[in-house]
Amino acid sequence: MQARTSSRIYNQSALEVWFSCIEIDWEPHFSPDVLSRGQQIYREGKITEIELTEQEAIVHCSFSRKDNCYAVIDWVNKRPKVRASIEDNETGRAVAVAGMYEIEELIADEIDPLPYAPQQKLSRDKLNHRNNNRQIENTKQAPKPNYTEANRQADLGKPARPLRRLTPRLEGLETGLRLTAYWVSPDFQREPAFQQGSSTLNSS
């Protein structure tokens, strides 16, 4: 089989359309003689260009420097319908067969694993409506700002306890390390964080 260097013109949407077409067994729609000749044209690399659109495929073929033709493949009622630039109908259909094999090769090389779905553009009204809904949802879900322990105690009807911070202190001794910690209130008064005679942290 000769190396094929055909030109390929297509877009992603056209690939998806023709992918759905070649999933159907299209070969029975051509006679055995046309299939055989089309396979020979394909193997000999005589297809010079494939142009895919969502509506049709245009297959250009060159038998010699001055002997060129093209075939147009439409997909009608789940089957290929062929038009050609030459009067020899069988040759035109054989070129279409070679083009179908080229399309199969192109799709195998280029198509994405998942079908292409063009993103629909939203109208300005729909876009504004969606943004407004998002703002409402964000407002509902937004946490209360600066909600502290004092706020929680006030909501429960309890007197708010002054906020304190834990200040640890690590001292090096000859026998090892000693850890002490203090709760420091807003007026900088200190209270031991560990219970007397215990290493348990006292958070009361």
Could you walk me through the main structural features you see in this protein, from its secondary elements to its overall organization?
This protein has 204 residues and is of the alpha+beta class. It has 2 domains: 7-110, no CATH class; 162-204, no CATH class. The protein has 5 helices and 8 strands; from the N terminus they run βααββββαααβββ. It has a 5-stranded mixed sheet, covered by helices on one side. Strands 6-7-8 form a 3-stranded antiparallel sheet, with no helix packed on it.
Sequence stretches where pLDDT stays below 50 over 5 or more residues: 197-201
Strand order of the largest sheet: 1-2-3-4-5
Structural class: alpha+beta
**How many domains comprise the coordinates?**
2
Envelope shape = rod-shaped
